[in-house]
Amino acid sequence: MLDIGSFRARVCQGMTRRAFLRAGALAPLAGLMPSLARAADERKRVKSVMLVWLWGAPSHLDTFDPKPNAPVEFRGPLSSIATRTPGVRFSELLPRIAARSDKFALIRTNKNSQSGHLEAGTVALTGNADAAVGVTPNFGSVVAKARGAQDLPPFIAVGRGTPRDVVGIMKGYGGGSWGKLFDPFQVGCSDDGAVELPSLQLLEGLTPAHLDDRRKLLRELDGLQRKADQPEHRKWDDMNRRAYDLLTSPEARKALDLTREDEKTRGAYGHTSFGQSCLLGRRLVEAGVPYVQVNWSQYVEPMTPGADFGWDTHVANFDLLPDRHGPILDRAFSALLDDLHRRGLLETTLLVCMGEFGRSPRINAQASRDHWPNCYFSIWAGGGVQPGRVIGESDRLGQEPATDPVTPGMVGATILEAAGLDAQARAEMRVLQQERVIHELF
Amino acid sequence: MNSSKADGQRLTKDGRMKMDPVFIRDGAEIIFSAQETPTQLSLMRLKLADGSTERFHPQATTSEFEPSFTLDGRWYAFVQSRGNLNLKVVIRDTRQNKDAVYDSGAGFVTPRRPSFAPDGSRVLIALPGGTGQEIIAVDTQGKNLKVIATGALNSGPAFSPDGKRIAFASSRDGGFDIYSMNADGGDVRRLTKTPGLDLRPSWSPDGERLAFTSNRDGNYEIYVMNADGGDQRRLTRNDERDDYATWHPDGKRLVFMAERNGKFDLEMIAVG
What we know:
Chain A is α/β, with parallel strands linked by helices. In chain A, about 30% of the residues lie in helices and about 15% in strands.
């Protein structure tokens, strides 16, 4: 249902006018969890969580947990380099991140229960496997529900659509059994910084070009309002309405406009889809979005057209990583750390970077690496995390955690706790009730 | 990002990711791979006379990359994506306007980095195999496969201009280093021995020198050395990435992908 209302909006040209189409679908969010929002400890909670999601699963041995003393069939051809943290080494593909190891904590004992992308992705982002009772909501959906309606959508996913493979989409991408209302608002971002709102593609006659002309946009909206009873407009789903809401919010347009960044900053992230997406994520965090998930996009996957396999390097692992994945991640993530730190946003933001699992320590018959849920890494920064530390240790071949494993449920509980959802609040929401927070991070 | 050396001559300006430049038509044009859309790598043609860039295969609808040409330009090969994890090497005869395909099987096998023999007799390909990643040679029909290099990961093969030697990167001694071998795979010689990655060897037109990429000094830079591995010198000095070097036919200049303020363009520099 469309909730048609009106408000006074000041347009760019200094005019005021009454117009508009209110996205009523978000209104229920405001009242859903008021007690939980209050229950959150305002003094401790971060304003935002930013998850950098390395879909496809990066090799832990070739990135943040190299094994230089392992046999060659495990350690591979990549060398390790010293980091800023004494005694800690990363892959040679990540020199910039290695130089910033004092800005984050690294967990080397993450462990997933599932070995397929779709199932493991759901577990990694919800803390639970897909069950008969339905899919548990994404951590971002939980935060969105608790925080309620905002000027900006409370859960935004930046990337090229919902993470998927050739079989289908990863079910844990959004609201799950809570419904599409709690799905992330999808935003795309190309290597030149052009921002795409996929929802708009469903609205006939309205293109992103309209964003450049607010007066024209408002005329269009007036026209659409008059046609709101027409059958085709009743088909609009929640995402369409949220897109409209976003379009008419000056704050949102400002946050989504990467041209407001100077060239030096944009360049620091790298003019890749992932790099500019990380920059967009920082802008959204800065604008107050409670949960931003930046997905590694299919930009780096020319070998897998039509599917977003990201870091799923069953083949050509040692071609792709030095050519593309390594340099792109190294530049973008190090710039993100610098940028968040420089702006003081690490004080109010929890930054997490991980995939759904790791990759096989033993190199496969295709001279690459396969899935490995038993041991992988995650990176944590800001939000009170004590930086410059490695938590947990994998065994000498990187096959299993040598110390207590960190489960996706623990990851989720820690994220939610940082976002202000303590054990009581999580119990009220019936999410991750039995999971322990990774206190070693703080 | 600071450059400690004057930049070279910038040949492209769009900033999109680029790879694999090679000269054709006696240096009048460069063919390279570019990230044309988020999901497609395309072969592009740069005309040096006017700086214009256009698609090399205007009708291509899938990713194509890593081109290699014969000296006379009759033949060329490139990698073409034909589905998920399904790469083929296309071998094109421009005189007969016919394609042959090297097909290593469906799915999860990825032939990469074709390199044509100067006389057009064979194409080298890096191919995952039982011993790691091998270098194989096939004829212009994609048949009569012969294994040239085995053991460890071998990549980036490049025929010398006279066709007698092959330079390549290999991890046979640990990390990736540059090696050379006879065209039949014999007489393997290690040319670099430094820590870090040494990749993508490219022969000078006179066969006396090799350009290559190395991160031995912390990030990807272009180096040159004699064909026997002697006199290794760093040519580029930038905080950002310099990669994918190829020689101009005059033997006095190199073109490479230069990352500057996060953008990727082709640059040309003189080689002393």
